[in-house]
# Entry
Amino acid sequence: MAIKTKRAEESVREVGPSATFAPQTLDLQSLRRKRNAAKKSREADNKHTYFIGVAEARYVLRKAFRIVEDQAKAYGIDPLAHQALIQIYGSSEMQLQVNQIANRLDIPAAFASTLARTLVEKGLAERRRDDQDQRVTYVAVTDSGRELLHAIDEKVQFHVDYFASQLTSSERESALSILMFYVGAKF
# Structure
């Protein structure tokens, strides 16, 4: 409850597009202690410390995802279709097969196929045959799709930077300690 009280006490200020937010420096020793405490707590009978981190991590992720989804909608694209574009463009070859899109989005292949078709129909993606095996089809982002991703990301960055600037060091470290735990990161 102290976190909500601290946020409520912070002055609310109006921000415009020209506002910049300084990145916060992490205290790696404190982050290491929080990660170790969360790991230890997860294995103990009293898991409260672990769940503090889980709650912070889920809060930060949900808030960031909500910002991304809202910006995608503002640009007229379904948030899941936007995520498909991100996965395609963000892949090492900048193209994915439909089953790879399905896997990356954790959705059925038939739904991924519908998403891909919608992206192609909107001119945001195109289908390409594999040079080596003509039976294999890839979905790649078009120039229009790339421009849309960049435009959305520019808006997202501003809102995420503002959100992140409102987090306390403790909230940031708690969230990061759990994210590190989830991906198996160690110091």
In short: The two ends are 30 Å apart (CA to CA). The helical segments are 2-9, 28-42, 48-74, 79-89, 98-105, 109-121, 143-165, 169-183.
